[in-house]
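Incident log entry.

Two folding requests arrived from the same account within the same minute. Monitoring flagged them as a possible duplicate submission, but the sequences differ. Recording both here for audit purposes.

Request one:
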Amino acid sequence: MNEFLYNYAVCALWSSNDNSDEYGDDPLDRNYDIQDLSPEAQDKMKADCRAFQNQAGDLLNEINDEQAGHDFWLTRNGHGAGFWDRGLGLIGEKLTEIAHSFGECDLYVGDDGKIYIEKGE
């Protein structure tokens, strides 16, 4: 797992909840880690990260892989932070546009205790 993909997955777990109680839940990273991602979720994350990196190309030279992986998850899912607020100007805007083109997705815990990805609406 490269640094971009690793930080994308870590951010996904950190910013997602497990819906374990009536108030909403615990962050997934409190009780799960990347080892708990289902093979399907791992494959989807790999494919999305690879496709994003291919589309972004040289734009990613302005940001390190740790930040870029983190920002890809946050930006595509409409969180209050991401590429657009890093002070990258036009590059940040272009990276945001590319990330938004992937659409939102959500993590959830399956009956088998593994984490899966569901495409958002």
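Request two (distinct sequence, not a duplicate):
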Amino acid sequence: MFFKDFREKLGISQKEALKKLGIQQATLSKYESLSIPPSSLVIKKYCETLNANPTFLFFGQGPHLLSAAPKVSVENGYLLDDLSCLFLQEELAQKLREILIEAVREKVRGIIKDVVFVKLLDAFTSSTFIKQRQFHFLYYFFYIISISKNKPNITIQNAKNFILETIEGYKTLLSDDNAQKEILQLFEARFSEDECFKLLEQVDTVLLLLERNMDISTMENLRISALPHKQI
């Protein structure tokens, strides 16, 4: 939960937040210190009173204000509702993931070795912990690799070790140590040195391609979330 981060982004004190939300200071402090989980009514109050984006409150992702979050058009919303009547939720999620993967492949087709990139997408989409915001995670991965690769005086002698050390050195987008461990294990088991070298070779180009149609505020929030555990 990112209640304290949300309030700080609003630039208001706890006292000001209490007045707007109509809750006790002790309760707000417990939400912000993660001592107790908020109820659905509290989440609703944050959204309606403070214009909070629930995705930011839960995951720390995307713009903190709901009004700044990317919108699904009414027509697309109806289409998703209709599809929900025809498919089980997991079936629908799988079909949407397939559309996402194909769209990302089209973005980078001819730029990066297709087989390597498909392996990378498969690794992320098969992850136990990356079931949501997979495009965000993909962008985050290429971003942290790019900024690590482009640091001054960097010499890369082993591409696979460099990628593993970069993943290990940064906080994961999901704020979950298990997610980080799983991605490290996936890379260790599935990717050869040659494949990792090919990914490094094209990382900056792929990053630019992924950014072409991204919402600026989303991109900036993903970049801000790239916080290193240590200097690498």
